[in-house]
Write a structure and sequence with these properties.
Blueprint: E1 2-11, H1 15-26, E2 29-36, H2 39-45, E3 53-59, E4 67-73, E5 91-98, H3 102-111, E6 115-126, E7 129-137, E8 143-151, E9 167-173, H4 177-186, E10 190-197, H5 201-204, E11 211-218, E12 227-234, E13 251-259, H6 262-271, E14 275-276, E15 281-285, E16 289-297, E17 303-309
Parallel strand pairs: 1-4, 5-8, 9-12, 13-17
Antiparallel strand pairs: 1-13, 2-3, 3-4, 5-9, 6-7, 7-8, 10-11, 11-12, 14-16, 15-16, 16-17
């Protein structure tokens, strides 16, 4: 069985600054931390030989899914998305976090050193599901989709305690949303919705007439968090960022998923067209501890890191 997204690995310029930001804005706590170094880590994370890093795993107290794994490397890097002038390019793009009140959360984000990209806007996601949505940047320029959800009673997303959430989804810009959805469905994910979003070009900063095909999928073990969100800008093609989305460059480098059988998962991912980044390696890495791990490129160059904990 393959899990929901256990963690997203995000490279930052200053680990302590970024930890403080997410602690101040979302009341996250530091759940684990470690040094990242050695041949196994270099293979798994595509790190240049000799590069080292410090990592901290953050999330709400007691959370085990949808965690944020921040890492600061000992050599400087550049934001691999640059100034986001090519928003249509493919790869892991945004971290989505649910809050009780979007206006309060955005104000807190700005006060902590973040900045806004798009002001809160209301849209209907699906029948019985709508949201106040916003786009912002954290101190490193990573895109945060902070949203306030309005879910009908009985919805998979209706159960919510009001605290800022774990990572609800990690968004991937894709070239073909249907093909990518088929890939993740074959891994065991289930579609929550498939929607063409129109007339929101100003919110997403897109050329007039560009539609957004949005498919949201969840793992059966975690329907309300750690989901995959696929975003295709229809009629606005991009290019993969896999050659730039590597350490020490800054941005969302990968997502981690747990599996109870890494060999079987590797065979499945390869059969579906995934390309191995490295062979399976053994290492100690939070939030898993000692684990057998292997990374793959997904359909649009996004890196998927599979772990079989010991």
């Amino acid at each position: 069985m393959i899990s929901g997204l256990r963690a997203a690995t995000v490279s930052v310029a200053d680990l302590e600054r970024s930890c403080s930001f997410y602690q101040d804005v979302f009341a996250y706590t530091r759940l684990a931390e470690a040094k990242v170094a050695g041949r196994e880590a270099e293979l798994l994370w595509q790190m240049p030989s000799g590069l080292t890093g410090r990592t901290a795993v953050l999330g709400p107290e007691g959370a085990a899914t949808g965690l944020l794994r921040l890492v600061e490397f000992d050599e400087p890097g550049e934001p691999y998305w640059g100034d986001y002038s090519r928003a249509q390019d493919y790869g892991h793009y945004a971290l989505n976090i649910r809050v009780r009140d979007i206006h309060t959360a955005v104000a807190r984000l700005r006060a902590a050193g973040g900045r806004s990209k798009s002001e809160p806007s209301h849209w209907t996601v699906a029948a019985g599901l709508s949201a106040w949505d916003s786009l912002s940047y954290d101190p490193d320029g990573n895109v945060l989709d902070v949203f306030q959800l309005e879910a009908a009673e009985g919805s998979l997303l209706a159960d919510y305690d009001g605290r800022p959430s774990v990572l609800q989804t990690v968004a991937i810009h894709v070239s073909d949303a249907r093909a990518s959805a088929d890939f993740y469905s074959a891994l065991g994910y289930v579609e929550l919705y498939d929607k063409l979003v129109e007339n929101m070009e100003s919110f997403f900063r897109l050329p007039p007439g560009t539609g957004l095909r949005n498919i949201n999928l969840y793992a059966p073990d975690s329907p309300s968090a750690g989901r995959v969100e696929l975003a295709q800008y229809v009629g606005f093609p991009g290019v993969q960022q896999r050659d730039r989305a590597v350490p020490p460059h800054r941005g969302i480098l990968s997502v981690s998923l747990a599996t109870d059988d890494l060999a079987a998962t590797a065979a499945l991912v390869t059969r579906l067209g995934g390309e191995p980044v490295c062979p399976a390696v053994e290492l100690d890495l939070p939030p898993y501890g000692r684990t057998l791990a292997q990374s793959f490129f997904g359909p649009d160059g996004e890196v998927l890191e599979f772990h079989q904990p010991y």
